[in-house]
Amino acid sequence: MIKFIFICFLSLPTLLFSAPMGFKGSVTSMTDISKRHSFIETNYAYDAKSAIGVKLFHMDNNNRIRDGIEINHIHRLFRKNTKHSQMNWWLFGGIGYLEGSYEAINDKELSTAFVSPGLQWDYETKRVYALVSHQLIRGDSTNHDTTKLKAGFSFYETGYNQTQPWFILEMTNINGITPQLEITPTIRLINKSLYLEGGISNMGNPKIHVMYTF
Amino acid sequence: MKKMLILFTFLTTSVYAATQKIEVNGMVCAFCAQGIEKSLSKIETTKDVYVNLDEGFVILESSNDGLKEDKIKKIIVDSGYDVTKISLVNETADVIRKQYEKE
Question: How many domains does chain B fold into?
Fold first, then answer.
C-alpha cells in the first residue's frame, strides 16, 4: 500500500521539493532520489518557526527494502542572523509506519510503527555552506538512524534574480542501508523558489535533490 | 476635463507614493529571501519590491505614504530575518534596481 502511494506521489509532476521549511504561510516540497534512499516531502509553515509535513520514503540496498510514511513536525530552535551569515538549529521529529522484509527471520514481512526525532545545525554565508544532522529512525527491530554532513562553497556571488552555482560535498550514513559513509560531490543550483542538487556518490550512485517553495 | 483628471491622478500618486529602504540581517541566499519579496508583494499598497542580496537591503515602494515600521518588521521576522534599519529614500524601486544592476 505504501509503495503504491509512493509511486503515485513520484508520478505527480508538480511535486518537486526539499529544505527544512520556508517562510510563514508557505508550502515547501522536496524530493531526494537516489539508489538507496528516496523520499518526497511536503510541509506547511504555519508560523515563522514551525512547519508540519508529510513524507513518503523508500530505502533499498538490494538486501533490505523499506517503504514508509511519516507525519512530521519541524521547529526552528534558534537562528542567528548577521549581515553576512545565518546560523540555525532545527529540531524535527515524526511518527510513521513502515513496511519491508525482516531478514533475521527468513525475509518475513516486516511492518512497524516508528518514531524519528532529529536535530540539525546549519550555517550559511553567500559563499560558504555547512550542515550537520542526525535523525533517529526507530521501530520494532528497526534502526535506520541517519547522519548527514554537508559542506561546500559557491563559485561566485550572484544577484537575487540570478542562478547561483555551488559545490557541495555530502556525506551520509543510514544505519542498515548504507554499508559505510556514502560520499557524494554535488553541484547545487539556486534560483529563488527552485533549489536543485545533483551528483554521483563514491559508490557510483547518482543522486538528485529538488526543492521548491510555493 | 480629461487633462485635469490626468493631472489630478499624477499629483495624488506622486504625493502619496513612498519608497522605504529596509536593511536586513541574515539575507544570504535567494531561495531564503524570496519569502520577503512574496510577503511584501501581497500587501495591497505595494507597487514594487527590489531585493538586493549583495548589500543586504530591500526596497519597498508603496502607493501610499509607506508601510508602518512595525508591520514591515513583522513581515521580515516572519520570513526569518532581522531588520536593522528602515529609512525613506527619494528614488523609486526601479531607479535603485537599475543603479545596482548597472554595476
Answer: 1
pLDDT in tens, B24-74: 999 998 888 888 999 999 999 999 999 999 899 999 999 988 899 999 999
Cα–Cα distance, A157 to A170 (Å, whole number): 21
A213/B54 touch (CB, cutoff 8 Å), yes or no: no
Nearest CA to A212 among A14, A9, A7? A14
CATH number at residue B79: 3.30.70.100
The C-alpha cell at B50 is 527590489
Q: Which three cell numbers stand for residue A33?
A: 532520489
Domain extent, residue A97, equals 2-213
Closest Cα partner for A85 from A139, A133, A24, A128? A128
Number of domains composing chain A: 1
Q: Residue A191 is nearest to which of B30, B33, B52, comparing CB atoms?
A: B30
CATH code: domain of residue A63: 2.40.160.40
What is the total residue count of chain B? 103
What's the pTM value of the predicted model, to 2 decimals? 0.82
User: Whole-angstrom Cα distance, residue B80 to residue A24?
Assistant: 8
Report d(CA A142, CA A175) in Å as an integer.
10
Closest-CA residue to B29 (of A161, A51, A121)? A161
CA distance A126 to A196: 17
- B22 lies in which domain range? 2-102
Closest CA of chain A from B52, distance in Å: 6
Residues of A in contact with B79 (CB under 8 A): 23-24, 48
